[in-house]
Amino acid sequence: MVHPKKYLGQHFLTDHNIATKIAGCLSKTYAHVCELGPGTGILTQALLKNENIRQLSLIEIDSESVEYLRLNFHDSRINLFEQDFLKTDLKRLFHQSLALIGNFPYNISSRIFFRVIENRELFGEIVGMIQKEVAERIVASPGNKTYGIPSVLLQAWFDISYCFTVNETVFFPPPKVKSAVIHLKRNNTKQLSCNEKLFITVVKTAFNQRRKILSNALKPLCNSLPEHLLLRQRAEQLSVNDFVQITQMVEHEKSAR
Fold it and tell me: What values do phi and psi take at 75, rounded to 5?
């Protein structure tokens, strides 16, 4: 097999057992699944064995991979899109809730998850293989040093679990780090009880100066926050609900000006 060129940190999975294990992390709920970055299609093969999947959309930016997939996959359930996931109008491309799965390129995995947040009503479930360190940050809980911006923002709208670790030896070319598979399922939060755009800004601002207590870290947003116990803590100590409450405070102070 001739492998398409590596693109944006992409390492192609070569182990069929791991591909089957990743595909098995998806629930049986979704008839429409989107695979991001299928590469040589090893995960695609595993997904096609799932008879519950009636439509499999493949989004691939690399032209060599697209050519390979067109030559080797002729299943009628497949829709192949040669485009950039990060620039695609996903709500125009997809018209119903679906699941997203893939071996996400390391260099853009964080940006992929931010696109997921932007389209959170579209993706009811996500299974992603990413760098292990990034996976640990996403699933981290308050008080953990790895707890950060992606932890809070993704956990606000998704229930997240760490599925399993993947060794370097099952990739071509082998990466220098371990990988991990995580599972995200859309939770019951339809809308946060605060301004959601401001919530995202508050979270990012707080963690950008994570060594400072919140009352000081958030001064670029609001210089006159009230005295509150939450504001005496650092960002990594606060839960999603705490950040919602702080966003309400910032919103109230801004509106009172």
Answer: -70, 135
Report how far apart, in Å, the C-alpha atoms of 125 and of each of 28, 90, 184, 185, 213 are: 11, 15, 6, 4, 34
Q: What is 12-186's CATH topology? A: Rossmann fold (3.40.50)
Q: Where in the chain is the domain with CATH 1.10.8.100?
A: 196-256
The C-alpha atoms of residue 162 and residue 35 are separated, in whole angstroms, by: 19
Ramachandran category for residue 9: left, alpha or beta (phi over 0 → left; psi -120 to 50 → alpha)? left
In single-letter form, the type of residue at position 29 comes to: T
Residue tagged 């504001």 (tokens): 231
- Topology classification of domain 196-256: Helicase, Ruva Protein; domain 3 (1.10.8)
CA distance linking residue 20 with residue 10, whole number of Å = 19
Query: Over the stretch 100-109, which tens digit does the pLDDT of each residue have?
Result: 999 999 999 9
Contact 158, 99 (CB under 8 A): no
35-58 confidence digits (pLDDT tens): 999 999 999 999 999 999 999 999
